[in-house]
Amino acid sequence: MGRIEVRSLSDPDEVVGFDHGESRIVRLAGTVVSEEQHDPGWSWETHIRPVVGGTSCQFHHRGYMRSGVLVIRSDEGEEVRIGPGAVVDIQPGHVGWVEGEEPVLLIDWGGAIEWASPRTEGERILATILFTDIVDSTATASRLGDSAWRRTLELHNETVRMVLQNYRGREVATAGDGFLVIFDGAARAIRCGVALARAVEGLDLRIRVGIHTGEVELANDNLTGVAVHATARIMNEAGPGEVLVSATTRLLAEGAGLQFEPRGAHHLKGLDGEHELFAAEVVPAKRPMG
After folding, report:
1. Is 97 within 8 Å of 31 (Cβ atoms)?
2. Using alpha carbons only, what angle is made at residue 148 by residues 142 and 154, rounded to the nearest 5 degrees?
3. Are residues 155 and 240 in the same domain?
4. Which domain holds residue 238?
5. Of 53, 78, 109, which residue sits at a domain end?
6. What is the pLDDT of residues 13-51, one digit of tens each?
7. What is the pTM (predicted TM-score) of this model?
């Protein structure tokens, strides 16, 4: 792959159709870009909510409006009318609809993946699971005070979601100050975990990350299965800023430009036997000689 990569939305990697519109998706250089088309009469509540469930869209959209008029209303009641030429940042927790008779065309960076895809309840799938947790969050909150801690936590959540978009991680849930995310690739999950640990350091925070691969079941908008519990236990063994992975995930990610340092065998609460764990890092790129 050269230093310049050119793709076209007229020749997308994937087209996701939905009632009154479609997403044309292109992936390049770790980024997801899509052209979202919403036809006149489209609304999230009428055409998307019956498919994905929930009360509002929980994806973070950033993009450029090419044509049409889109109205967005946040969960807090803020309502904005967006027209051609606008550059937008739409936080999770919103609904939207097309105003007028012209189709909306929106170029979206990162918010398109799975936002209009149905969730299959009860289906067991093989996935790589990632858990995060802020180290010493209680002490940090006490030191900063309530107001400053809330803002820090908001920045943490926004930073995590920005990184997840680059690695195609699917946010399943947040619990306190941590995230539960699934991936369809082990190496990508590990790279994301390393990127997350580095990204939040700019907020003067340290997180611990646990990653494991196994079968999970989607039920009631959450993940269930032994693999989920195993991932949480692995995360608990990680140190500040550390990305700790299971032997299964390490094996699946071999040859992907990652390095692993053994952390020994651990007894994980509620699980049988001993489990070999490894601290993961991305191998630094070699600089050209000369």
Report:
1. no
2. 110
3. yes
4. 124-282
5. 109
6. 777 777 888 888 787 655 678 889 999 999 988 887 776
7. 0.59
